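Let's practice the habit of predicting before peeking. Look at the sequence and jot down your guess about where helices and strands might fall. Then scroll down.
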Amino acid sequence: MRTRRLTLAVAALALTVPAVHAVAAPPDGAPAKGLRDRTASPVAADPAWTVDPAVVAAESVDCVSYEDAPALADAVVLVHGTSTQGHEQYAWNYEVRLAEERLPHCVVTYPERGFGDMQVSAEYVAVAVQEAARISPSGKVDLVGHSQGATMPRWTVKYWPSVQALVDDFVLHAGPNHGTWAGDVAVGPSLAGTPLAPLGARPPVFWQFRTDSDFNRYLNHGDETPGEIDYTSVYAHTDELVQPSGLNGPATAALAVDRPDKVVNVNVQDVCPGRLVDHLSLGTTDRFVMELTISALRTPGPGDLGALDVALCSLPDQYVTPATVSALFGAGGETSFEDGAAWFDQSQYVTQEPSIRDYAIARDGSAD
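Done guessing? Here is the structure:
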């Protein structure tokens, strides 16, 4: 884990980002974010690693802490979506916004720009959560993820008891939680088991994005929102990739609400009619989504629409400041968008979905 500690005097982002405070204080009598009971119960054993957690922590997780962080604040883990990497996605938006709030955070980059097996990527999230707990004033961790980075960490939370015990809030941006029609369109499944199967080969994750994938069947088997975690899932009718969205079928991003006090689904257009938000901006720069996210992180419970200023619906759609523009041009750091081009090499494609790991079968059987 590469860790930076920033003080008020040297945190340039905090000095260049204008303050935006749309989060209401907790209601009278409600506990502050870090003051509720955080006593963890004993947990079962985690699955065996298939990656080296020390290497992942050293090479794929970057963390920032603040000496003036809010007392008992949770550390945040940012989980990027498919085809990008951690800082490429977040350096010019949520990293800047979290710096303004003085919230310690970690950015994880999982392998192959997310085109590989999500069961492997989930282990990177497990490492990131453990590293974030080390810098968390409260000892607890909040997850914020976009697209695959919203859905895939649910696998980590479900099958890693130690992670589930550490996570306090989980904000999902445009997560294909029950698969997506975009994953169903390819011809691969119809060719599986035939001599033409190689013609249907594609990256492993595309098989897992299917609405009928084994991955989704296991992920959503039983409790979709396990643990004492506050879940806020945000999505939009105008998302061109994560469909259906509710108008054309049950919203794939919506989580089952067994506990209304712990789980909230928010469709952007239901709150801000006519607001245009696409798949990328929903998880990067949309102001309404960003302030709802900060509200969820800073106050008890899942995202509270009542705690937001309704004027956010009429503000410019995008979060843009001098700091975000400057960060955008250096967003990749030492990485490059070109290093993902190998995934256009079809020799790395597969003709069927990756097998479900033994630990998931041991717990959930056939997940029927």
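How did you do? The chain has a mean pLDDT of 84.
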